[in-house]
Each structure stands twice: as C-alpha cells, then as structure tokens.
Design a protein that fits this description.
single chain; about 750 residues; Maltoporin, Chain A; 22-stranded antiparallel β-barrel; four-stranded antiparallel β-sheet; globular
C-alpha cells in the first residue's frame, strides 16, 4: 500500500502544478461572489455558486477578475496553487466591467465600440418604479412623454426620437414597436445586472430600429443573485411600487430567479385645473422568471420569461369605464397583455456556436376618446453566431431571422378591397465581423450585415471601428456605420391614435437610413485621494428618407411622407465620474446637440430645428456616505434647455418654445448590517411642471370632442366667440412631466 500511496501523492502534486484555482469573495463581507468573470491565459470562466474557479493552464500569466459593482482586480500568478481574490465594492457606473457591445463578451476597455454601463447602484440614487423614469439620470438620454392624457412615452438618445432607439433584454430585440417602452417597465431593480447604452447606429449587428442607438438591459445570472430581495416604495401622490426577487434551485444543475413587480396609482389629481388628470392612473403587474443551467465546460444555457398586464387611463376627472369609447366624457384607456420569452444556448460543439432566441406576444385593447384601437403583434426571433479567435483576428459571424405578425382594426391592415389583411414580414439576414489586432495598442473592427425585406429588397449596413490605447488609462475610439429602420406608424406615433386627427399617408413609405461617425476619448486618473474618469464623445449622423409628421397643413390631419431632403444630428458630450477617499462620489454629464431637418421639396433648402429637442442638457449626481453611521445622502438632477413645441397654428397662445427647466431630487438612506435599507426623500423638489408660463397645456380641454369647433370648406378651423384662438382638442403639447413635488419613502431587504 505504501508505494501506491506515494504514487497518489505524486500524481496529486503533478495535477496541482498544472492548475491555477481559487475563490472570489467580497472583501468586506468575505462572502463568495458567484458568477464573477475570471480571465486567465486567454481563457474565461464564470465562478461557481461558491465563487470558485479552476484553470488547468500552467502559471505565469495575469489573472483578471471582474464583477458588476466591484473594482476589477488583476493578479500576477507566479506559481500554481489556490488563490483567494478579494474584490472591493465600487459605485462606479463607468467601471471596467464585462460588456456585450459587439455581441461578444469583452472587457469594456478592450471593446472598440464605446459602451456606457450603468448598474442598479447608480439608479438607486433616485429610485423609480420603472427604468423608463430612471434613465433620466443618463447623460444624453431623455424619457419623453408624448401625450398629456395617457402618458405614452419613448426614449430619446442624442436628440433622436423613440423609434430610433432599440431596446434589448439580454441582447435580444424583445421590445417590439407596438410595445413602445414596455421593455423598461416591470423589471425589478434587483433583477438587473447592468444597463448598456450604445449611442449611434448598431444595425450591422442588431438590424432594424437600431438606427440611432440601443439600450440593452442585462438581467442577472441567477447564480449571482441573493436569496431574497424585496423593495417597497410609496409617495405622497399615493403611488405604491412593490418589487420582489427570489432565488431557488431546480435540481443540482439549475438555478432560477423569480421576480414580481406591482405598481398601483389610482388617485386622480388635477393640480393644473384643466379638469383632466395630471398623470395617468395605472395598475400594472409584471412577473419575471429566469433559469440558468450549469453545463460542462461552462457552456451557457439560460431561459427567461416575462408577463406584463397593465390597465391605464387618463382623461377628464369624472371619466370611468362606463364612458369607454363614448363621446360624452373624454378618456384614454389602454389595457395591455404581453408575454416575452428570451433564451441563449451554447451548442455542445468544438467551435463556439451560440443560439439566441426570443418570442413576444403583445395584445392591446384601447380607446382614445371615440377612437377604438385594438391590435395584436407576435414576433419570433432567432440568431446563431459563430465566435472564433485567432492570434490576430477575432471573428464573429451569424445568421438571423425575425418574423413579425401585426394586425389591428385600422386601415393599416386592410387590402384594396377593404378586407382585413394582417401584416406578415419575414426579415432574414446574415452578418460578419472581424476584430483585427493591428498592434499592441491598436484594434480595427470591420463588419457588414445583409438583410432582405419583402417590400424594400436588400438592405446592406456596414460598420467600422478603430481603437488606440495610449496606455491603460487613456483610450481613443473612432466609429462609423450605417443604420436602417422599417416603419409602422400606427405602432409608433401616439398622435395617430388620439382620435383628434385623421392620418394621411402620401406615398409608399421607404425605409429610413442613417450614416454616422463618432469619436470617443476615455481617460482615467487615479491618485491616493481620489479617482476621476472622463469621457468625451462627438458625433455626426445624416438621415435620408426620414418620415416626419406634418401637423400644420390641415388641423384635422397628420400627413406622413418621406422627407425630400435630409436630417442631421450632431453634437458633443462629456461624462465625468469621480470619487474621493472621504466617501464623496458623483458624476456630471453635459450634452450639446443640434438636430435639424432640411426640406428640399420646394426647390430650396429650408432648414428647421426638430421639435421637442433640447440643444443643451445636463445630468448629475452627488453622494456622500457617513461611514460611522451608515447614512448616505444622494442629490440628483437633470437640466434641459429650450425646445420648440408643437403649436396648432399661429394663433395658438401657448408658448412656442419651452423654458429652461430642471428636475432635481434628494434622498437619504440608512443602511443596516442585516441587509436592510430604509430610504426617503423629495422628488422634483423645485416643483417644476410645464403649465408654468403657459395659459394651458391641453388645447380645448373643455371640448375634447370638438363639438363646438367650426371649420371652413378647406378644413381650417374658424375663430368663434367660443373658440377665439381657432384651436381643436390637442393633448400632444407636452415636453415635461406634469407631476410636481412629492415625498417618497421606501424599504429594501436583502437576504444573501
């Protein structure tokens, strides 16, 4: 037995010499960090539920550990054995974590494409019941309300309207046009790993709708999540938001994360005295469940499902369900049922093949005054990618297909015989991308995508990116690319559904195209007493075939046509994030932009500013932690310059442009050792609302069905004693939320 015992010891020693293993833990609590990303000797692993990793390569390389919310740690491994990596928590939103801006998992500093990253800790500085509202803190990103009655909204990136922004969940284009921004509602903060923002066209990888930018919501790997997270918040406006996340095991190799989000606001308020609700009443329930499987060789496999039900209404204060669709009391009621599935599966092959897939079913039953709008949309999406890395090249190739079924009760889905004909579109495509290592400090990315649309034919979208690293703290990036977008007006423009105007489409609409170039410079400064990260970006985007609504030719119509000319978005922004050793943290973002439309239909170039687009904006946050007492104070805000507003006519007495306005908030949080947090504060403590400085916001709110409006033979409104300004009912004059100052209180509980 003794020789056998000696042989076993020798074998064990041989194995240990060829292995580098270890454990990743939280430096403060000592708890393991499950799902941390570990890079070593050109290999990558996710730590297990116990924070463990294991590489079979010999020592002699650098080991890099990255985990969202923690500072990246680098260790030089000089000998085989077991190492404990103690990671320090960080509140940096622009930290060097793993991103997927190029459809590949890379470190942010290694990506040729500039990607902004925001963690849940960033949004906790101003807690909101939906990510739609929380994005107000992101520089160059603005949630825009499109209607004073139903509060439908979209997300503007660098001044471009919502339809130019693609919203993804875990990299899949799950949010369809009919869903608008529903992708940003009903996701508990505890389920979000991070949010990635790419400004500029990304159609070469993501296809239609990624024409101006994209927002990618990365949900947590269940392995990383705490056992239980609960968050309850209420406001002085009687809003109640409840979020719950629970982790549980399904056998030995499967872990699941269940999230429930419920928001309720059913207390009508009319502080501007126009007899209409200031904000929409909502009753929303969302259920989210994500599954993750542990497989051999750390291959990925995950599946997530989400269901959303919402009943919202706004209108005259005396409206209730009995007035649905009638012409006696005006109201807008939208009932939505939505199901989403999204998954990723790495095929068990030698080559790295990843299958991504998603499906969503969206049903909407709604009434906008007397206009009944019922619609159903089903979208199936599948994408197979091949990832191959060689010494100088990093290849990514893929084939993709998206099928869209859309049907509603409007002429949009009728044939020439006035029979119902749902829109069915199969949009297949292929793409190829190569990231070339030109030198130790230089990378070049080249990519191209081909899509085929049955109405528009072949659509080709190339892209290029160049990255130069002066050193580990200074990086220069240059990007250029194109984007495209196919359009369904009835699912994107709320003004087409208010019932206040008739929609007129002049000609067959062509897909919109964009051409973009941008430059990005990132610099990090670290001293003993502070750290500072600054990021400067300048961009220029040229649009053709842009589809713009004409509200002024006829007061009763919205006329849509491709622009005979071009549109330009250009500007620059700077982000600065800083922290001091005295626990003071903050960020400041400033964006200056010019978005214009040039019309050549008359034979002359007529240049105008885009409506509802500010030329200057700024966001900021300032946080201070009292280490001894575990109190944290957060001051956040956003500032916006003047915008051109959509007046009905030259006699409209409302302001032609908005004032300079700002929304500012303050919060105080108490953190307890048992994982509990109590927080409270004041939102919009300056009490800004858009009614200030304007005689009214909703035109003709006293006559929402235009029963007392008189028209001439050409369809123009005639001024009368009852209508001295010659207006029609119009709820679309909106640029800021109607919700003024309000107190909020909340409680969070985390069980690890």
């Amino acid at each position: 037995m003794k020789p056998l015992f000696i042989l076993m010891l020798l074998l064990q020693a041989f194995v240990l010499q060829a292995q580098v293993s270890g454990k990743v833990v939280d430096r403060q609590s000592g708890e393991p960090l499950a799902g941390a990303v570990v890079f070593y000797n050109n290999q990558q692993q996710l730590t297990t539920s116990q924070g463990v990793f294991n590489f079979k390569q010999a020592p002699g390389a650098f080991l890099i550990c990255s985990f969202t919310g923690f500072e990246t740690d680098t260790i030089h491994i000089t000998a085989a054995g077991f190492v404990v990596v103690q990671m320090k928590a960080s509140s940096k939103s622009l930290s060097d974590v793993v991103v997927t801006g190029t459809l590949k998992t890379v470190k942010r500093t290694e990506s040729p494409v500039p990607v902004e990253i925001y963690t849940p800790a960033f949004f906790k500085k101003n807690p909101s019941p939906a990510l739609f509202d929380a994005l107000q803190l992101v520089n160059g990103v603005r949630p825009q309300l499109n209607c004073n009655v139903c509060n439908t909204g979209d997300i503007h990136i660098n001044g471009l309207e919502g339809p130019y922004t693609m919203v993804l969940i875990d990299g899949m284009p799950i949010v369809s046009s009919l869903a608008s921004v529903y992708g940003l509602f009903g996701i508990p903060n505890a389920l979000v790993e991070r949010i990635e923002v790419v400004k500029g066209p990304a159609s070469s990888l993501y296809g239609s709708e990624a024409i101006g930018g994209l927002i990618n919501i990365i949900t947590k790997n269940p392995l990383k999540a705490p056992l239980l997270t609960a968050d309850v918040m209420t406001t002085s406006w009687q809003e109640i938001n409840t979020e719950l996340a629970i982790k549980y095991n399904m056998g030995k190799k499967a872990t699941a994360l269940l999230g429930v989000s419920y928001f309720n606001y059913t207390h009508p308020v009319d502080k501007n005295n126009d007899q209409f609700t200031d904000i929409t009443l909502q009753n929303r329930l969302a259920i989210f469940n994500k599954y993750s499987w542990q497989r051999q060789q750390n291959r990925l496999a995950s599946l997530a499902a989400r269901f959303i039900y919402e009943d919202r209404w706004g209108g005259e204060m005396r409206w209730n369900k009995q007035f649905y669709g009638g012409d006696s009391v005006y109201g807008e009621n939208i009932i939505t049922r939505r199901l989403e599935l999204v998954g990723n599966y790495q095929l068990p092959t030698k080559e790295k093949l990843m299958l991504g897939y998603s499906f969503n079913a969206h049903g909407q039953r709604s009434a906008y005054g007397t206009t009944i709008f019922n619609a159903n949309q089903y979208i199936g999406f599948a994408q197979l990618t091949w990832d191959k890395t060689t010494q100088q090249h990093d290849w990514l190739a893929g084939t993709v297909g998206r099928y869209t079924y859309y049907d509603d009760n409007t002429p949009a889905t009728q044939n020439t015989s006035l029979r119902n004909q749902p829109d069915k579109i199969l949009l297949p495509g292929i793409f190829l991308q190569d990231e070339i290592k030109l030198a130790a400090k230089q990378k070049l990315l080249l990519g191209i995508r081909y899509d085929h649309h049955k109405k528009h034919g072949a659509i080709i979208t190339p892209r290029a990116a160049y990255k130069y690293s002066f050193n580990s703290n200074t990086i220069l990036r240059f990007n250029a690319g194109t984007g495209f977008r196919t359009v369904n007006l009835f699912t994107e423009d709320h003004a087409a559904l208010t019932g206040a105007r008739t929609v007129v489409i002049k000609d067959a609409l062509k897909p919109e195209r964009s051409y973009n170039a941008n430059i990005n410079l990132l610099h990090k400064t670290n001293t003993k007493g502070m750290w500072l990260t600054t990021e400067f970006t300048a961009w220029y985007t040229h649009f053709t075939n842009r589809i713009l609504p004409d509200y002024t030719t006829n007061a009763n119509q919205i006329i849509y046509a491709n622009l005979k000319g071009y549109s330009i978005s250009k500007g620059a922004s700077i982000n600065a994030e800083f922290g001091f050793t005295n626990s003071l943290r903050g960020h400041l973002g400033i964006t200056a932009q010019d978005v214009s439309v040039t019309d050549k239909s008359s034979g002359k170039k007529i240049r105008t500013r885009q409506l509802l687009t500010e030329r200057l904006s700024s966001t900021w946050s300032l946080s201070y932690s009292f280490a001894k007492t575990n109190w944290v104070i957060d001051y956040t805000g956003a500032f916006y310059g003047k915008m051109l507003l959509p007046l009905l006519s030259a006699t409209d007495p409302r302001m032609p442009q908005s004032p300079v306005w700002s929304i500012q908030n303050i919060q105080l949080t108490k953190k307890f050792k048992n994982g509990m947090e109590a927080y409270g504060g004041v939102k919009n403590f300056l009490n800004f609302t858009p009614v200030k400085g304007s005689p009214f916001i909703i035109a003709r709110s006293n006559d929402p069905f235009d029963k007392q409006v008189q028209f001439n033979n050409s369809g123009q409104v005639i001024a009368t004693p009852q209508n001295p300004y010659a207006l029609t009912f119009d709820p679309n004059y909106v640029y800021a939320p109607n919700q003024g100052r309000r107190l909020f209180l909340g409680l969070r509980v985390t069980v690890k």
